[in-house]
Design brief:
two-stranded antiparallel sheet, 71 residues, 3-stranded antiparallel sheet
């Protein structure tokens, strides 16, 4: 099974990766490997979060890892 299908940033109904804002074709999905932005699907009250909620969490995660202030 490809990584895109298991990623929280992938919208299966629209076949779109919300991080790259790109509609993925079946060959793209099958060829997907180790994506830097892969995010496990998170659940709240038994329901999976939407791809856009995953996107918000991923952006916050990346922003928190950036160096802040003078070194």
């Amino acid at each position: 099974m490809s990584k895109c299908v298991q990623c929280g940033l992938f919208s299966p109904m629209q076949k779109e990766c919300v991080w790259f804002k790109k509609i993925l074709t079946q060959p793209d999905i099958e060829a997907s490997g180790d994506c830097t932005y892969f995010t496990e699907i998170m659940y709240e009250d038994g329901e999976p979060l939407t791809p856009y909620q995953h996107l918000m969490f991923k952006r916050q995660d990346i922003d928190s890892k950036k160096m802040q202030g003078p070194v």
